[in-house]
Amino acid sequence: MxxxxxxxxxxxxxxxxxxxxYSDFLGFIVGMDMGWIVNFVSPDNPTAQxxxxxxxxxxxxxxxxxxxxxxxxxxxxxxxxxxxxxxHPLTNEPWGVRRFFVKDPDAxxxxxxxxxxxxx
Length: 120
Fold this sequence. Notes:
This protein has about 120 residues and is α+β, with helices and mostly antiparallel strands. About 20% of the residues lie in helices and about 40% in strands. The chain has one domain (about 5-115): 2,3-Dihydroxybiphenyl 1,2-Dioxygenase, domain 1, CATH 3.10.180.10.
């Protein structure tokens, strides 16, 4: 399995203020903005990213981090086999990712995801 990136997921009470802080102050560029979630990307290192969200729109819990992998299905099957606690099922999301949430040993919620192939 290949890990493509690991990104902290932060919850914000005010996304506009977070945008000012991460973009204007720290110099990140906006890689994605869906209104409820903003992905900030380093202009020099595209794998250095921060996700800031008001509230996850399709899950009942907020993730603490996102880990992008090359085969989310394989990792999901392994997590189930190992008995890890799932807190969001394996789901194809409308914004083009397949993901599930699993709790780590310290109850941190990890969003494990892969990008779906483009629909043609």
